[in-house]
Design goal:
The chain is α+β, with helices and mostly antiparallel strands. It has one domain: Jelly Rolls (Sandwich), CATH 2.60.120.10. About 35% of the residues lie in helices and about 30% in strands. The chain contains five helices and eight strands; from the N terminus they run ααββββββαββαα. β4 and β5 form a beta hairpin.
Length: about 130
């Protein structure tokens, strides 16, 4: 099992998938390391990627106010990417972080192929505040 496939199997969004499915997802993901202080997503920017946090902690802020902190197993960037909107929040690495990054095409493939992942992402879309909900 590759490091990326192993990482995927330990993350809640990908839990319950078999090895072959994890390998297919791993092919679509790009591993990204970012040091503490890196602004990964900036509120108002175009949405181009979806990120799953493999390690570290990020701060999610809207209009300069902390909305939440997220760490390993969380995912970010789904609202803008799935809904075709600009970014609804700024995400900054609070610690050194490692992510699995999926571009729009790759995320679309994952969501179309794996209904359980689509359901988990859709559930987050429903729970998380959107820009016009603030």
């Amino acid at each position: 099992m590759s490091r990326t496939t192993h990482d995927l199997s330990s993350l809640p969004v990908f839990s319950g998938l078999d090895e072959r499915s994890l390998q297919a997802i791993a092919i679509l993901a790009r591993e990204l390391a970012a040091p503490a202080g890196t602004v990964l997503i900036r509120e108002g920017d175009p949405a181009t990627s979806f990120y799953v946090i493999v390690g570290g902690t990020v701060r999610v802020e809207r209009d300069g106010r902390l909305i939440r902190s997220m760490s390993e197993g969380g995912f970010i960037g789904e609202i803008g990417l799935v809904e075709g909107r600009s970014r609804t929040a700024t995400v900054t690495c609070a610690t050194d972080c490692v992510f699995l990054e999926f571009g729009a095409f790759e995320l679309g493939r994952v969501l179309d192929t794996f209904p359980t992942i689509r359901a988990r992402v859709d559930a987050a879309l429903t729970r998380r505040p959107h820009r016009d909900d603030a």
